[in-house]
Amino acid sequence: MDIAVEVAAVANQVYISHNLRESLMYLPPNVKQVPGIKAASIDGFTFLDDSSEKADALIYCTGYKFDFPFLTPECKVRIEGRRVMPLYKHLIHTELPTLCFVGLPFKVLPFPLFHFQIQYFMRTLDGSISLPSKDEMDEETERDFQKRLALDMPPTYAHQMGSMQWDYFAELADCLGIKRLPPVVRMVYDYVADRRKEDMMHYKTESYTLLDHGHFARNQVSP
Fold it and tell me: For residues 11 and 126, what is the distance between their CA atoms, to the nearest angstrom?
C-alpha cells in the first residue's frame, strides 16, 4: 500500500492487486484495487475475476524468504517457509544457545523488540539468566507454534506477533527484572493502526506526545 501511494504521485494509473477480504480505504484517486493476478500478457494482466487491465510495469510485493548463506551446516539452522528453527522465544538457538537471531518477529514495534531481545540474550551469555534444557526449550517453541496454528495462522506467520507482541515483551521484561512497556505505548500503536486505515495518505505525517503512562496527544499537523 505504501508503495502504491508513492508511485501514484508520478503515474497516471496504479493497480493494487490483492486477495484481501476487505478493500483498502482512502487511497489516491488514481489507485484502483483489483483481485489477484490470474495471467500476464504482453501489455497487461488478467485478474482472478477475469477482468483485465493494461500496465507498463509490475512491482512484486510478495514478501521475502529468510536465507543465511554465511552460516555453515554445523550451525544446524533450518528454515521452513518463513519459520527459522530451532529458536527459543523466537531468538535463541536451542542446541547452540550462543547463537541468536535478533529481530525476526514481524508486525511489531521494532525498537522495543530489539531492546528486550538483546538484553535477554546478553543475560543468558553472562549467566544471570539460566536457560531451560534443550528439550524444554524445544517443547515451549512447539507450543508457541501450535498456538498460532490453532488461531488459523499459516506456518509462514510463525514469527508474526501483532497483538501477541505485548505478552512477548512483558515476558522478556519480567525475565530481565526490568520495567514493562507502559500501557500508553500500546495505545499509540493501536491508534496509529486505525489512523492508517482511515487516512493511508497522511497518517505518517502525524506525531504524538506521551503525556503519562495512560494518555497521549496527537499533535496538530501543519497543512
Answer: 55
